[in-house]
Amino acid sequence: MTTHPTLHSTPHRHPRAALAALAAGGLLVLAGCGTQTSGAPASRPASSGEGKTIRATQVAHVTDPHEATGRTLLEGPLLRENGDLYVVDVTAPAGKPKVISVDLATGKHKGVYTDKTGAYTSAQISPYDGRLYLTDYTGSVVSTEPDGSDPRTFFSGEVDGSAMNLDDIAFDDEGNLYISDLHGMKPGKADGRIVRIDRDGEQATVLADGLAHPNGVTFDPELRGLWISELAENTVSYLLLDADKTTVTSQHEAVHVDAGVAQTDSIAVDADGNLYQALHGRPAMAVFSPNGERLATVEVPAKAAEGLESATNVAITPGGRKAYMTVSGPDGGYVYRFTALGDGIRQSNGG
């Protein structure tokens, strides 16, 4: 049954209240920023419906499952100007690195930022102030300097009377934020939202709701609209925005992702408008043209895939085609590299 989201344009002023720490059980449920899967095939050859196969190669083994949470989950890859890659570990416990810098030449890595309570699901640099922005599943947005210093709570609290469970983030050129809100991820309930937060953090607007666990969110290359992936329905929808980017003017389901037991996780675009759809429950990405044609499937080597469960997101080098995919599972959290079909842009770097 198709769920028809409701569109909104009502602003809401939020209180800057601190959020309680995420319960350990809730953090475990979060794994994959999606629902738990079991018995998923580790890898499979691309069929005629999956386009060509792109083989990814390992760059770095970044994390191992944490004793405190039983998991590790890398997300939000972000390429820095110095060539390093930032990733977040969603399930890292208090005191362990939650933002990690990876040297892509050597595979060496080091912690950049941590705190006691955050469960960070994405990362991106704001084009407005150059700070690093992190979405916290527990309902807040934290910003730091790029080196992890000067942490600030940019936004927290309810929007339209409801608490948020934040996942991915996108910025427009003016620095306003567009965030996917999983809204509790209740099975069988399509009550997720896309929320716009002004760049000063003072006003939040629900752009669309009634969504089936919205996960990925990214602008198209022209910044006319948002591509969003709905994890519970394995669909990618397109939300056309007005000139001010404060209202959705039209919306439709654009792509249905045939992924079997896997589900649609984060999404990115390249300069040609191609969509890179990460898969939760399979260490792979599906690549579509902006017209919905399945162009390719990015796969890790079959032997490595046996210990991996999900590919969560990708960062493509701005102006180039080197793409870096975050992959995690019982064997740990990894970064894999492949060649993208189009050049990277800001919309394919972080989020």
Work out the count of structural domains: 1
Architecture per CATH nomenclature, i.e. the level-2 architecture:
6 Propeller
Which series of helices and strands comes N to C? EEHEEEEEEEEEEEEEEEEEEEEEEHEEE
CATH homologous superfamily label: TolB, C-terminal domain
Distance between the termini: 29 Å
CATH class: Mainly Beta
Largest sheet: 6 strands, antiparallel
Average predicted confidence as pLDDT: 87
Structural shape: globular
Q: Radius of gyration in whole Å, from Cα? A: 18 Å
Low-pLDDT ranges: 1-32, 35-48
Roughly what percent helix?
Answer: under 10%
Strand content: over 45%
Q: What is the CATH topology classification name?
A: Neuraminidase
- In terms of structural class, how would the helical and strand content be classed? mainly beta
Q: With helices defined by DSSP (H or I, 4 residues minimum), what is the helix count?
A: 2
Strands, count = 27
Q: How would you describe the overall organization of this protein?
A:
With 351 residues, the chain is mainly beta. The protein has a single domain (6-348), classed as Neuraminidase (6 Propeller). The chain is 3% helix and 45% strand. The protein has two helices and 27 strands. The protein has helices spanning 24-30, 302-305, and strands spanning 6-7, 11-13, 52-55, 57-63, 74-79, 85-89, 99-102, 109-113, 120-125, 132-136, 140-144, 152-156, 166-171, 177-181, 192-197, 203-211, 214-219, 225-230, 235-241, 248-256, 263-269, 275-280, 284-288, 294-299, 310-316, 322-329, 332-339. The strands form six sheets. Strands 1, 2, 13, 14, 15 and 16 form a six-stranded antiparallel sheet that branches. The longest helix is centred in the first third of the chain and has 7 residues, at 24-30.
